[in-house]
Amino acid sequence: MAIMGALQDGLGGKPTILYAKAALDGVASIALTSTLGIGVAFSAIPLLLYQGGITLAAGVAKTILTDPVVTEMNAVGGLLIVAIAFDLLGFKRLPVGNLLPSVFVVIGLLWIFT
Hints:
This protein is an all-alpha fold. It contains 6 helices and no strands. The relative contact order is 0.13.
């Protein structure tokens, strides 16, 4: 959600994904702050840096990130969410963190095959 929401925002779209992520993060941070303390509030700094960086980079790369590319990136992101669901349900342990670069590999694949 962070990557695709920041891309959507940087490409001039409505940041609806980021709004949904902010609501989820807010609820989670309230729960975590009750047990982990004030340090949870400082996690907003790296979040701002990487989401802001992705948003700024997407604004610069508008020529590369066309509508078909973003559609395929969303499809890969959806498959990663399915992989997370498989892991949570106990079907299969998949290294989802190792698969995150695949969201950006799809850009090169589209250039090769189109």
